[in-house]
Design brief:
Radius of gyration: 45 Å
Order of helices and strands: HHHHHHH
Distance between the termini: 100 Å
Structural class: mainly alpha
Helix content: over 70%
Largest sheet: none
Number of helices: 7
Oligomer: single chain
């Protein structure tokens, strides 16, 4: 048995070696061999990791700390480029480079914030669906318990209560006394 399997494996390997490699146009024709994997020219990234990074950045952009740091950087930028010696200034009066940097920051901040909002919307949608299912289960449980309580009430209506049993026993005792089968209560106490 083992020899037969070994021979089959060797024959399969020999057939695979004898076939020419799959290239170019043959790729569409040769269906008996797997395609040779090609590297994609596009960079690969993990969308989940990128989403977490965008949320972290968006969370920071929405803090007072970011506003304070941006204000400090802009003030330092303006002070440096107005009071520093002319040779050390890198952005003269209309502050074109500062405008460019702020525009660049805004062009990245807006999509990052939108990505973070989309992820939050997805989480909210999942949470809403889970809440809806939980509420449906709660309603079903409540309806079940309501039906059970109603059934118990109906069944209890048919159950003999202590007062009803007492009144029935007293009626039966009176009936037996009238027939004379049981002595009256005064005679019973003497025995």
């Amino acid at each position: 048995m083992a020899d037969r399997e070994r021979d089959e494996r060797m024959a399969r390997r020999e057939r695979e070696r004898s076939l020419p490699p799959v290239t170019g146009r043959d790729r569409r024709v040769r269906l008996d061999q797997p395609m040779v994997p090609r590297r994609s020219p596009l960079p690969e990234y993990d969308p989940e990791a990128f989403g977490r990074l965008s949320e972290r950045i968006a969370r920071f952009l929405g803090t007072g700390r970011f506003i304070v740091w941006m204000t400090v950087v802009i003030i330092l930028w303006l002070v440096w480029n107005t009071t520093a010696p002319a040779a050390l200034r890198f952005d003269e009066y209309p502050f074109i480079f500062l405008t460019l940097m702020l525009s660049l920051q805004a062009s990245y901040a807006a999509p990052l914030i939108l990505l973070a909002q989309n992820r939050q919307d997805d989480r909210d949608r999942v949470n809403l669906e889970q809440d809806r299912k939980r509420n449906d289960r709660s309603i079903a449980d409540t309806e079940y318990l309501t039906r059970e309580v109603a059934t118990l009430r109906m069944n209890l209506g048919e159950v003999a209560t202590r007062d009803w049993i007492r009144s029935e026993l007293q009626d039966l005792l009176k009936e037996l006394e009238q027939r004379g089968a049981v002595p009256p209560p005064a005679d019973r106490e003497e025995h």
